[in-house]
Write a structure and sequence with these properties.
3 helices
Length: 91
């Protein structure tokens, strides 16, 4: 199974291509501007919370997995043309 390394706001994570593909399908299905205007900032907020928890919790596996999930979602939203600040980068 192939993996992609992503970085966001100082966090480096690895996500599987399979997860990104599933998330990409979900993002492509959601064309509602109202949903996108709500979801992208919410995903950023949740990623930030998990980043802070990761730093406070010495990066438990559960927190790291959740952080990777949100950063992967942000990457797909960004790939689909939404603005994500800070930008998600492929490392």
């Amino acid at each position: 199974m192939s993996e992609v390394r992503l970085s966001w706001s100082g966090a480096d994570v690895t996500v599987t291509d399979e997860y990104l593909d599933v998330t990409r399908v979900s993002v492509n299905m959601e064309q509602s501007r109202a949903f996108r205007d709500w979801r992208v900032p919410r995903a950023i907020e949740l990623a930030q919370r998990n980043l802070e928890a990761s730093e406070a919790d010495n990066a438990s596996e559960e927190v790291q997995a959740t952080l990777a999930m949100y950063i992967g979602e942000l990457y797909i939203w960004q790939e689909d043309g939404e603005v994500v600040e800070p930008e998600v980068k492929v490392s």
